[in-house]
Design goal:
Layout lengths: L7 E3 L2 E3 L3 E3 L14 H11 L5 E8 L16 H14 L7 E6 L28 E2 L13 E2 L2 H20 L4 E6 L4 H6 L14 H19 L4 E7 L10 H13 L5 E4 L17 H8 L6 E4 L5 H9 L5 E4 L1 H5 L3 H9 L21
Parallel strand pairs: 3-4, 3-12, 4-5, 5-8, 6-7, 8-9, 9-10, 10-11, 11-12
Antiparallel strand pairs: 1-2
Helix pairs in contact: 1-2, 3-5
Protein name: FMN oxidoreductase
InterPro entries: Aldolase_TIM, OxRdtase_FMN_N, YqjM-like
Keywords: Flavoprotein, FMN, NADP, Oxidoreductase
Length: about 350
């Protein structure tokens, strides 16, 4: 029996298999609101055969967007547009859907990837003044952020909570907090970007405080039966930065607070990073964290082949596999994986005639 196609629970969320579609920014929103592109994009992913879909990084405030075309969930208009897109996209799918809540911090006000690298100026038509834990720019192509005051930090935590409540009201299955890839929560975590001298800076406990306060406030707001996990960058790939040892301790702390899963990535905080990218290069970080916690751990990063994914689960290096670019390139990746691994998978009735009989789930 294929373990990749065995069931898995993320908190109260039941998955039919261990293939999870990781968040992928589409840069296609209007004033934070989902558009027809999102409807079409999600419809395709929701018929892929994966176990769950995590919606792209969704900003909790206008200032928290990576670009002016990012998805948001800070007001009724954003919530209504998201509800409309989701109602169509999931009309014929029962795949669990989670949403990644995020704030870009000093990496906000950016150009879209197909335009150019770097950020727009604060006075640009589609730009704004960015904010972070400290007044340190990502690099010379990005703005120098204003340092958040304690009052502003409290407001940001409230904005995360409000977005979480909206997520629950939308009928989603859970939330993933984005604490990775050099965005705001990660900026607080790393000593490379956090030079604060108050209770949110300095030692490990202080640098983790912002994330812990967001997590505990959301958990209190949505209750124990709503899935809540965290995506982390397990290392900055820079000496003296955030690293695996700190990530392991953070994972332990989060698990004790009722975290339902840890989604393990790396990098994104510093332009000085040196990433040895290769197939499965981030899996050892997931394996190390899995050894420290009893909650599910998701591995991601250049996992493209079915047997590769199966081997990771079999070796207990992770509990689930996150796919992003691979499932865009091959929208029914799970169908092909089921055939290769001798597993069965649910297929929409309308598509039954185009797939081999041996993978059809009765």
């Amino acid at each position: 029996m294929s373990l990749l196609f065995s069931s898995l629970k993320l908190g109260a969320c039941q998955l039919s298999n261990r293939i999870i579609i990781a968040p992928m920014c589409q840069y296609s929103a209007h004033n934070g609101q989902a558009t027809h592109w999102h409807t079409a994009h999600w419809s395709q992913l929701l018929h892929s055969g994966a176990g769950a879909l995590i919606l792209e990084a969704t900003a909790v405030s206008p200032q928290g967007r990576i670009s002016h075309l990012d998805l948001g969930l800070w007001d009724d208009d954003c919530q209504q547009a998201l509800a409309q897109s989701l109602s169509i996209a999931r009309a014929h799918s029962d795949m669990p859907i989670l949403i990644q809540l995020a704030h870009a911090g000093r990496k906000a006000s950016a150009y879209t990837p197909w335009q150019k690298q770097g950020a727009r100026a604060a006075d640009d038509l589609h730009g704004w003044q960015v904010e972070s834990c400290s007044a340190q720019a990502y690099n010379e192509d990005f703005q120098t952020p204003t340092e958040l005051t304690q009052q502003q930090i409290t407001l940001l935590i409230d904005q995360f909570v409000m977005a979480a409540k909206r997520s629950q009201a939308l009928g989603l299955n859970g939330i993933e907090l984005h604490a990775a890839h050099g965005y705001l929560i990660h900026q607080f975590l790393s000593p490379l970007s956090n030079s604060r001298t108050d209770q949110y800076g300095g030692n490990f406990t202080n640098r983790c405080r912002f994330l812990i306060e967001i997590f505990t406030a959301i958990r209190a707001a949505v209750g124990e039966k709503f899935t809540l996990g965290v995506r982390v960058s397990a290392t900055d790939w820079v000496d003296g930065g955030w690293d695996l040892v700190q990530t392991e301790q953070l994972a332990v702390n989060l698990a004790q607070l009722g975290c339902d899963f840890i989604h393990v990535s790396t990098g994104g905080l510093s332009p000085a990073q040196h990433i040895p990218a290769a197939p499965g290069f981030q899996v050892p970080f997931a394996q190390a964290i899995k050894a420290k916690v009893a909650i599910p751990v998701i591995a991601v990063g250049l996992i493209t082949e079915p047997q590769q994914a199966e081997d990771i689960i079999n070796a207990q290096q992770a509990d689930a596999i996150g796919l992003a670019r691979a499932i865009i390139y091959q929208p029914h990746w799970p169908w092909h994986a089921a055939k290769q691994l001798g597993a069965k998978i649910a297929i929409p009735n309308q598509y039954l005639r185009c797939v081999p009989n041996e993978i059809k789930q009765q």
